[in-house]
Amino acid sequence: LDKQQKADLATAIKTYLIDELDVEISGLQCEMLLDHLGEIVGPAFYNQGLKDAHAAILRRMDDAGADIDVLEQSIKGR
After folding, report:
1. What is the CB neighbour count within 10 angstroms for residue 33?
2. 8 Å CB contact between 50 and 74
């Protein structure tokens, strides 16, 4: 994440903690929490993203296969 993305996410976490849990922590603590959450849940989200991308590619390949089947010409005498 670039600095701005990380700052925006830390602000969102801080807002959530205040609004939903009535807990206030500093900006630095929010960034540390964000880093920790990234280490814990990041791989699960990353792996799911890979699975989703794989499924999307397979769908496209199926579509391409169907498009090629449509282009197939019949052989005379068959």
Report:
1. 16
2. no
Assign residue 2 a region: left if phi > 0, alpha if psi is -120 to 50, beta otherwise?
A: beta
Q: Region of 21 please: left (phi>0), alpha (psi -120 to 50) or beta.
A: alpha
Q: What is the pLDDT of residues 36-78, one digit of tens each?
A: 999 999 999 999 999 999 999 999 999 998 888 888 888 887 6
* Closest among 10, 38, 8 to 25, alpha carbons compared: 10
Minimal CA–CA distance to 37: which of 8, 66, 10, 77? 10
Q: How far does Cα 56 stand from its chain's mean position?
A: 13
Digit-coded pLDDT (tens) for 16-29: 999 999 999 999 99
Q: Tell me which amino acid residue 69 is.
A: D
8 Å CB contact between 10 and 34: yes
